[in-house]
What does this fold into?
Amino acid sequence: MRAYDGGDVRAFEILYGRHKAATYRYFLRHAGGQASTADELHQDLWLKVVGARKRYAAQAKFSTWLYTLARHRMIDHWRARHGVSLASLEDAETLTQAEESFAALKDGRDDPLGRSMDLQARQRLLAALADVPTLQRDAFLLHIEGGLPLEEIAGLTATSVETVKSRLRYAYGRLRKALEDLQ
It folds into this structure.
């Protein structure tokens, strides 16, 4: 980002190339598999990155800063669409409303969750992921897609490391149970 701020357009291209697939999947999985919504959110995210190049201060890893922006954009989308915040999504009624449109993703290219899986197994995994409560799924996606360590997820979500561990444990448990016949 510092190089990009200094006028090195190639630096931005490198950052975008390194993070575009994972940030897109983050939005796509949270947006119910709706490509148009994910496209809009993804474009907004990268426009914010471009706009922030003069204000960027390396207080954390770039990926942590990027997923903070992505998560805030996702929360803004949920507020505008459902009138809810991420914190309120553990409520069963609100969770159902926010996730009613979640559908299985069809394309597993460049996808750490599905790279070595056949289409049927990948669809089952994504359907199982859709059944994971939002806050648990968010921690899971930040960990798997974003590659963020527990401490960074805790900072990003304003929770404790123990809360993140708990959310991940529950997410993995639900996924294991849903997919136990694939092992």
